[in-house]
């Protein structure tokens, strides 16, 4: 009798339940459990490494934020306030201080005198030509043939006058703003006896201010500020915020102009006012926007 060839591949119930097959299944299950345990252990190690790395990054960001408030921002705010003072007060004070120079006064007086003499000579010449044709200007004692040349020479001397103050200010281009301000004190500023307009021009730290811009700029006047605060107050605010961060372990990330959003290590969001130099704030906003886009 011919047997079915496929019957050789069919195991009998006795063979399936044999000790050998049960042992094989146990080994397979045990191997899978071991592999799963190994994977879970590896995953746990990786999670711990990521958490440690994140904690280190949070600490670095926290320290960098404090350094920004304590070191970077005060220098940037001082530079901004100094530039605004130099543009707003410096030229007027420099001009008035140059006018205090004896050389400057003498050169200017020479130009005025030569100009008056030139005008008188031109008037005499005009009068002779139109009113006294029988006379010549050379016959007039008050007429100066060289009046125009003298005026041109005096004016050129004024233009070529070397002002020591200009060289002094150029040498102070990298000096602190208080040194530059001290170099522009007027000699006529004799204290309370000085005229009011002189006292108003007197360099003072209260003139160092920082503009505070609105969060939404007016496109017609984007550089219009809503108020100005003293430089000392702006720096004090940054130092105070740095001390608060040290006490509360705040990790700072700036997301907008005029405000900062701080993420605590426990993921609680805290918002606090901030005075940020506009250029740096815009760069930080742009960087944050690109980061959010990349994450999305």
UniProtKB/TrEMBL annotation:
Residue span of region Disordered: 1-21
Official protein name in the record: Transposase (Putative), gypsy type
Organism from which the protein derives: Tanacetum cinerariifolium (Dalmatian daisy)
């Amino acid at each position: 009798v011919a047997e079915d060839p496929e019957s050789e591949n069919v195991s009998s119930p006795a063979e399936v339940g044999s000790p050998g097959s049960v042992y094989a299944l146990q080994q397979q299950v045990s191997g899978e459990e071991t592999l799963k345990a190994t994977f879970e252990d590896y995953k746990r190690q990786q999670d711990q490494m990521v958490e440690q790395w994140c904690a280190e990054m949070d600490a670095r960001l926290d320290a960098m934020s404090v350094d920004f408030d304590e070191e970077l921002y005060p220098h940037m705010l001082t530079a901004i306030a100094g530039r605004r003072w130099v543009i707003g007060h410096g030229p007027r004070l420099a001009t008035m201080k140059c006018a205090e120079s004896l050389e400057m006064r003498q050169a200017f007086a020479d130009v005025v005198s030569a100009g008056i003499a030139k005008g008188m000579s031109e008037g005499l010449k005009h009068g002779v030509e139109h009113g006294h044709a029988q006379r010549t200007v050379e016959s007039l004692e008050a007429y100066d043939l060289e009046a125009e040349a003298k005026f041109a020479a005096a004016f050129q001397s004024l233009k070529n006058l070397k002002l020591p103050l200009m060289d002094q200010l150029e040498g102070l281009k990298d000096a602190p703003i208080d040194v530059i301000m001290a170099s522009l004190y007027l000699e006529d500023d004799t204290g309370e006896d000085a005229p009011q307009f002189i006292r108003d021009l007197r360099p003072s730290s209260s003139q160092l201010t920082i503009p505070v811009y609105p969060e939404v700029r007016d496109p017609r006047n984007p550089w219009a500020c809503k108020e100005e605060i003293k430089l000392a107050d702006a720096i004090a605010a940054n130092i105070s915020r740095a001390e608060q961060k040290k006490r509360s372990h705040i990790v700072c990330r700036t997301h907008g102009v005029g405000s900062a959003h701080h993420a605590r290590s426990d993921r609680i969001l805290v918002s606090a006012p901030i005075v940020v130099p506009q250029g740096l704030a815009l760069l930080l906003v742009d960087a944050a926007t690109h980061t959010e886009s990349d994450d999305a």
